[in-house]
Amino acid sequence: MATTPAPPQAPPKPTWDPRRPEQPFPWLRPTIRIRLTLLYGGMFLIAGILLLSIIYLLAAQALNVGSDLPFKITEGKVTSQVCDLPGQASPDVFNRAMSECVNEQRQHALDSLLSRSLLALLGLAIIAFAFGYAMAGRVLSPLGRITRTARAVAGSDLSRRIELDGPDDELKELADTFDDMLERLQRAFTAQQRFVGNASHELRTPLAINRTLLEVHLSDPNAPVELQQLGKTLLATNERSEQLVEGLLLLARSDNQIVERKPVDLAEVAEQAIDQVHAEAAAKGVVIRGEQKPAVVQGNGVLLERIALNLVQNAVRYNVPEDGWVEVNTEVQHGQAVLVVANTGPVVPAYEVDNLFEPFRRLRTERTGSDKGVGLGLSIVRSVARAHGGHISAQPREGGGLVLRVTLPV
């Protein structure tokens, strides 16, 4: 029976990341500073054009361009070095020639006034835009401090504060509110870390005591068969509880940004994970293959090893009963370190892929067996990858299985 292919999913919308580097040309972005600069400069330019138009109209009205002369020549001789006046003519011809000459001079004066005013307006507009840009930067400088503090907080530095000085205006109120929020967040994260530390001790100790008592009773050769079977069942349940506690604690710790980073080669991490899972893969008849090329990243080696181990373990455990394989590859692509784990296995619908990264979420009921983990593997992988500034993606394979791709910055 042919299966209907799943409809293609729309690509996820990009989310804002405060740790993302600045764009190569930040002054080209339509920032608030640019908009305020254009607003200040545009208002000045419009006001200058209106003022220039009013001055031009008033000057034209005062000069009476096109009107007749307020005087007339009745007799005598008139000479001019500017106008071309007739040498010998009647008074009417002289008056008409002088009127044309005066109107021409008036128009020339208005044209000169207009051109020089436009040049002056252009110069003043440049000064106005520069002044508006500087003033907008000064007015918006508190927002820059808030943004830089937000970026630092996104890097898990909750001790940073804005501590904005200046007048008690809206920007200072915003900065103080942001500082209060950071203070509450820091207290909450500190309480969470304290809880994680206490839970680590309080939950591990009784489980370790239970495991010791069970192992002691199971080592008694005179114990009844029913008691030994019950002890083995309880021991397996206790081991599962220990795995659950370890997974929850690791998930809580890996949600924070990695502060201390060291060079870690993903190829070595993947090889160690393969060595640890090799015996389990051989027992299940799963072949592990692939090529591990050097891919050095800056991060925590223990957490990165957990990424590779969880992915390889899941690929081996959730595989086909016969002729299964797992492919593990590491390399550097486009300036980023990449770890790819692909495997054969059951068919995974495309709409179920995102649910696999949620804690305690599994694909089907057959994935809830106690021998296959506690349902935190991919959640831990995603959390650790985010803590290192990377991400993980999953795609269903044609024919069954998944292709998991972890990308980390070099």
TrEMBL record:
Q: Does the keyword Transmembrane helix apply?
A: yes
Membrane topology summary: Multi-pass membrane protein
Q: Tell me which EC number(s) this protein carries.
A: 2.7.13.3
* Region spans: Disordered: 1-22
| Alphabetically ordered keywords of this record | Kinase, Membrane, Phosphoprotein, Transferase, Transmembrane, Transmembrane helix, Two-component regulatory system
What residues does the HAMP domain cover?
A: 137-190
Locations listed in the record: Cell membrane; Membrane
CC terms in the record's Gene Ontology section:
plasma membrane
Superkingdom of this entry's organism?
Bacteria
SMART domains (UniProt xref): HAMP, HATPase_c, HisKA
Record's catalysed reaction(s): ATP + protein L-histidine = ADP + protein N-phospho-L-histidine
Name the InterPro entries on file.
Answer: HAMP_dom (IPR003660), HATPase_C_sf (IPR036890), HATPase_dom (IPR003594), His_kinase_dom (IPR005467), HisK_dim/P_dom (IPR003661), HisK_dim/P_sf (IPR036097), Sig_transdc_His_kin-like_C (IPR004358), TCS_sensor_his_kinase (IPR050428)
Among the Pfam families in the record, one is HAMP
Domain Histidine kinase stretches? 198-410
Write out the coiled-coil annotation as residue ranges. none
According to the UniProt entry, which residue ranges have a biased composition of type Pro residues? 1-15
User: What Gene3D superfamilies does the record point to?
Assistant: 1.10.287.130, 6.10.340.10, Histidine kinase-like ATPase, C-terminal domain (3.30.565.10)
In terms of one coarse class, where is the protein primarily found?
membrane
Q: Which residues cross the membrane?
A: 38-59, 118-136
The molecular function terms of the Gene Ontology recorded here are: phosphorelay sensor kinase activity
UniProt-recorded name of the protein: histidine kinase
Organism, by scientific name, is: Streptomyces luteolifulvus
